[in-house]
Amino acid sequence: MRRLNAESIILVWAFLGILLGIMFASVSSLGYFVQWLKLPPPPARVSEILNIVGANGAYGVSIKTIDGKIYVCNYSYEECWVSDQVPSNFRGSPSTVKPCNYSRPEFFFVTNPPQDSVDCIQGSVGQADGGVILAYEIDKNGEVWEWSHASGIGVFQDLFNFSLIGLFSGIIIGWIVASRVSKSRKQRRSLDTRLT
Fold first, then answer.
1. Quick one: 168 exposed, middle or buried, by C-beta within 10 A (0-12, 13-18, 19+)?
2. Letter string b/e over residues 55-73, b meaning 16 or more CB atoms within 10 A of that residue's CB
3. At what angle do helices 6-29 and 154-195 cross, to 10 degrees?
4. pLDDT at 93 over 60
5. Model-level pTM?
6. Which of 37, 59, 62, 177 could be 54's S-S partner, Cβ–Cβ 3.0 to 4.6 Å?
């Protein structure tokens, strides 16, 4: 059987590092590592999520409280929950799914999704340079949670960065493995020499 030399070991580990970097970038680009965030408390207990609303790249959620009032939370406002007296151009919902599809990346255990969901809505918004995937949930305590992930041209930057990190990590691991293999071979040769 042919033994691998140090350069071959380093190249194999470098290749594995690049592959792991590409895999991590791919999973990351789908939003598997984006965390859910709790929105500020609404003015009253929430009874349901109505829709995802937005325009001009600014999106948020509209809710209905138990007293029948409608509020919108969007960070383009100075306050999160404002009465639904928003400009008419801030209408029009992106494509939404209600109830949520719990097999999507936003509900992967690493994202720390809210427990005991009472209501949920998902939406996606296409933009010129990519898109935004949004999800909102109400938990059993009446708190509203948001998950959002933007994808676009930055995916290629992530792919490059993670591949580069994988390459360098693979080279370092390969160098360590190659040096240990070389040291082990030297010790074996030394032991064989003493025995003969």
1. middle
2. eeeebbbbbbbeeeeebbb
3. 150
4. no
5. 0.71
6. 59
